[in-house]
Fold this sequence. Notes:
The chain is α/β, with parallel strands linked by helices. It has 20 helices and 18 strands. The site of alpha-D-glucopyranose has 13 residues, from helix 1.
Amino acid sequence: xxxxYAASEALPYIASGGLADVAGSLPKAIRDKKHACRVVMPLxxxxxxxxxxxxxxxxSFYVPVAWRSxxxxxxxxxxxxxxxxxxxxxxxxxRKGIYGFYDDAERFTFFSRAILEMLHYIPFDPQIxxxxxxxTALVPVYLNLFYRNDERYRDIKTVFTIHNIQYQGKYGxxxxxxxxGIPEYASSILQYDDCLNFMKGAxxxxxxxSTVSPTYARExxxxxxxxxxxxxxxPRQYKLRGILNGIDxxxxxxxxxxxxxxxxxxxDAKKGKAKNKAALQAExxxxxxxxxxxxxxxxxxxxxxxxxxVKYILEEMISHGYQFAxxxxxxxxxxxxxxxxxxxxxxxxxxxxxxxxxxxxxxxAGSDAFLMPSKSEPCGLAQMISLRYGTLPIVRKTGGLxxxxxxxxxxxxxxxxxxxxxxxxxxxAVDRCGGLFGNQEAWDKxxxxxxxxxxxxxxxxxxxxxxYKKLL
Length: 472
Ligand code: GLC
């Protein structure tokens, strides 16, 4: 099979969230199963020079953006044997940052249109174009509107993956003809609740819609989770799938990870984790107490990550003797709160506001437990990374957290879970983890068990391939 994987971000080139991890690792896993999978993404100004210099210029062409005709440079790169196409237009992409500009609708209209135009210039005829999130949601829309009469495009199937239904790409209807270049007669494809909704268009026009865990695929049929798209999804369940993400087990490998203090494997996990913990405590200004359970938290400091629960009860948890290592940035409310708590309890809370990949790896490796009480979580990667580093996840049962973590009180448990969105229920799970931490022998066993969980792409890549096959 031949798959073109379209994403607005992909590692190692650029990342703002979990999509980049997926776009940087799933294509490799598909390739490992002997299918051709290539990736296409924008050539952002923020891509580091050394990566930019590894690219090869292929050609350039022009892309229609409504009545405009815009330059597009085509570059290619190679990541672990997977070909990446990077599309260049300095006006759209040479900026500080990758999203959040006044003209994002036009920037990703250009990108989506350019993906389709590019097929005239590359020696690769995809059978499937796999799009991700609103930034590439217009690909199936344009394909069906403008390209189907051309032999090369006639049989291409499209898959659209929702990584987070909250971000839909909603814009004013006045952009329809002038920016998106979509004729008035086709306006109903994108029109939704008084605006244009890119994600809605893709849900309607793709051959298959998927999301990043089976539980989230069910949750988004419910108005509580769907951010108003349930009435698009419920009647289209016949083409909706949930496939759990994996992680890149080469990048996240405690045996080789150059970012952690000291590498370790299953056989020397106890010693290795103790060293990483002591070093992490020192780096984050915490007392080096081996007997205090150290709970890591890494991620965006936003409400849907469940931080209102943490805010409500952190002081009480601190009074139970735990230490916390917190890394993230986001809403001012939470940044301010964590700064306040950090100042008040410097012996118990280590805090770095920002995003520093090295420190994230150190927290995964050096913590005893990892807290992720998300209100909703399409998949979540941190809980899987934690397992790999022998750090026991404490998660709320939602989305991919529910699909990847089972409570140690149940059969095949690998972490701690709580169901209702309630601060005391969360603390109950943390305390149960704390209880196990007090039982050295049982704890060591749970750590080894966590490290043995399969969080690779192997199984899920098979499910994607299965889904593609059914379309052909
Ligand atoms: C989004 C989701 C996250 C998921 C990631 C990759 O960032 O919020 O849950 O793990 O996409 O699919």
